[in-house]
Amino acid sequence: MLREAAGKGVRLGTLEQAGFRTIADVLEAPPHRLLAVPGIGPRTAEQVTAAARRVAAQVADETKLRIDPDRRRPR
After folding, report:
1. Exposed e or buried b for every residue in 20-53, given b needs 16+ CB within 10 A?
2. Which of 22, 26, 61, 67 could make a disulfide contact with 52, Cβ separation 3.0–4.6 Å?
3. Whole-prediction pTM value?
4. Which tens digits make up the pLDDT trace of 43-56?
5. What's the pLDDT tens digit per position in 4-58?
């Protein structure tokens, strides 16, 4: 999902190898941590961060929470 949002040419493989495996990993990282990854420059870091924000916003918009107080957990 992040790959599609980031677009072609973004070095997601490099970030994955550096430990950034989820959208949350990218969103929680300060910019200097992304920039510390070899081959990741300011433009790539910004593209990946912006894509992660878009995906997170889309997931939040599409997620519906339903609380059912009458439903009992199966034992």
Report:
1. beebebbeebeeebbeebeebeeebbebbbebbe
2. 26
3. 0.73
4. 989 989 999 999 89
5. 767 676 768 888 889 888 889 999 999 999 999 998 999 989 989 999 999 899 9
Cβ atoms of residues 17 and 39 within 8 Å: no
Give Cα 32 distance to the centre of its chain: 16
Distance between CA 74 and CA 19 in Å, rounded?
37
For residues 44 and 62, what is the distance between their CA atoms, to the nearest angstrom? 27
List of domains in the chain: 2-62 (1.10.150)
Q: Where are the beta strands (DSSP E) in 2-75?
A: none
